[in-house]
Amino acid sequence: MASLSPAAAASPKRLRVYSSAAAADGDSLNGTGSGKRVGTHNGSFHCDEALGCFLIRLTSQFTGADVVRTRDSQILDTLDAVLDVGGVYDPSRHRYDHHQKGFNEVFGHGFNTKLSSAGLVYKHFGKEIIAKELGVSEDHEDVHHLYLAIYKSFVEALDAIDNGINRYDTDQPPKYVNNTHLSSRVGRLNPDWTDPDQSPEKENMAFQQAMMLAGGEFLESVRFHVKSWLPARSIVMECLLSRGNVDPSGEIMVFDRFCPWKLHLFELEEELKIEPLTKYVLYQDERSKSWRVQAVSVAPDRFESRKALPEKWRGMRDDELSWETGIPGCVFVHMSGHWGQQDLRGSFGNGKSCSQMLI
């Protein structure tokens, strides 16, 4: 399994953000940048171009590039890459706008959300960025898994928000307002209308902050997926493939060590075409020094279980539950039937003590 390279924590090379006036000044383009220039629009900014500009500067081709903020088409035509402005999507010329009529590009791999400029940059450069962070080649299997997982958990929401796509197909008004997500926080970095300084310089400084905020959280997501998500996925994969050793039905899994398993289980069952589906997962809870048996839900965001614990066990505790189940050391079964608990000295952990009662 890959791990983060020593360079992963390094920030992008010195960032220069300037406006069209500076871009038109030949002397101002001969500073300390890489010589490459990435363009986006000036005026109010959003999370997608802030993240897109951050991401493209992580690539080998555009590392250390200056960022030019303008809507002047003559200046945009001279730039090495253009994001979120210009009305053109053409990766061969590094044009990554999504506002033009007829644009319907999606990420693929089962994702159908229309892309923003951030999603476009990630689609074309995400594997390179992740491979560089890991210090491995782009064809490493972990790069592909991370490429899809980070799009799903981080980038897709930014694409959807920027394109005005609701999370749910409903005409009902939301029950509450959420202004704490990344897109909202980036939006609040725009200069306030009450600020007497509305200069391009002030705006560019704010955009630079937005790039660092969005980009920093992207890198945090990469690091989480490398340090936590990938190892957990490997553990779930191993236990899923060996579940037949626990019980012949293949419907009980036992983890020899705890990890976040729920989302991985659903994804791996679908990916590996697992039949029959897992009904129960057993694992040690080190905090309470007990074994837990959990009924797997029908979907990641649903409370209903594929097969809840027997109704007659629910709400029982201690000796009464042990007598009813015939399994010593029982502690509790939740009234919903979705989980139960046994003293760590008990025998839940081998899976066989409860398999005949459950399956």
TrEMBL record:
One Pfam family cited in the UniProt record for this chain: MYG1_exonuc
GO CC term, one of those recorded: cytoplasm
Similarity remark: Belongs to the MYG1 family.
The protein's name in its UniProt record: Metal-dependent protein hydrolase
UniProt organism field: Eleusine coracana subsp. coracana
